[in-house]
Amino acid sequence: MPEAECGPRTKKLSDKLSALQRRRTEVADAISAPATAINIEQVDALRARLNAVLISGSPEQTRTVLRALIHEVRVENRKHVYPVFRVPADPVRTLAGVAVPTGFEPVSPP
To answer: Which end of the chain is more exposed for a tag (fewer CB within 10 A), N or C?
Structure first.
């Protein structure tokens, strides 16, 4: 095959390989880094805040929290659903307020 046909593809694949190798190094460094100790007071504070949002928060706040905490959901069948949770390193940010769904245009004063 002429270089004009395969040259751009080879360049693209070479760039992708370089990016993947950099990512592999980043992941290896993250895995080899020492684990940080869990602070029980911070866990208790996070649990209390999550409980408050899940019980009395708006649906948007609840959805935001669940999206931040659930990594994946494995479904074998209707009776066997397994959520996989993750604990974020940073506190979960919930939206304080949500804009009123009035459409694409703002509401004009009367």
So the answer is: C
Report the C-alpha gap between 31 and 25 in whole angstroms.
10
Residue ranges per structural domain of the chain: 7-32+39-85
Q: What is the largest CA-CA distance in the chain?
A: 70
Question: Which has the closest alpha carbon to 48: 37, 58, 40, 60?
Answer: 40
Residues ≥6 apart with Cβ < 8 Å to 49: 91, 92
* Model confidence pLDDT, tens digit, residues 40-83: 888 888 888 889 888 998 898 888 888 888 889 999 999 999 98
